[in-house]
Amino acid sequence: MKRNNxxxxxxxxxxxxxxxxxxxxxxxxxxxxxxIFIYASYFFYSRTRFIPTSEMGNLTxxxxxxRQATRFRPGLSVIALILTFIGSLxxxxxxxFLIRLLREKETKELKRDVIESMVTPxxxxxxxxxxxxxxxxxxxxxxxxxxxSKVKVHxxxxxxxxxGIIKKYPYGLTNKIxxxxxxxx
Length: 185
What we know:
Elements: H1 13-47, H2 61-69, H3 76-118, H4 121-132, E1 136-138, H5 139-146, H6 150-163, E2 166-171, E3 174-179
Antiparallel strand pairs: 1-3, 2-3
């Protein structure tokens, strides 16, 4: 990458807010569904404990018939309870996972901003060139790709290595330069 091609990257905050809203909606939905599951489970439990027929002998006939007609028959209700519980767990898990991903992305952006504030424009060119080539290039390839002199690249590599941004490994007559994980996207 040549010197004149450097442009600051613009992050989209609207997308991030949208994902935070989606994560919050997932957590709220999962919580509400979990409360519905608890309520439905209690209803399921209390409906199965109705008055047995032998104890209904002293009740009037229409009430006894109505009571037997409303007798709870488990079947689809148990499946609905299980699906409600599983749905609430999935929703809560997806909300937590999305929040974790957003926090990781924000942490990486913060690290990138701190590093970019510490490095010079020429060092940014070297970092960008390494990022464009999967995080690893030889020092001679860096000289060719950036258009900087050998001495300038050597000094930049030495400074970036002292900052912990890159690592330098011997590679034949040249050096292999690799980005550290803190800059990986």
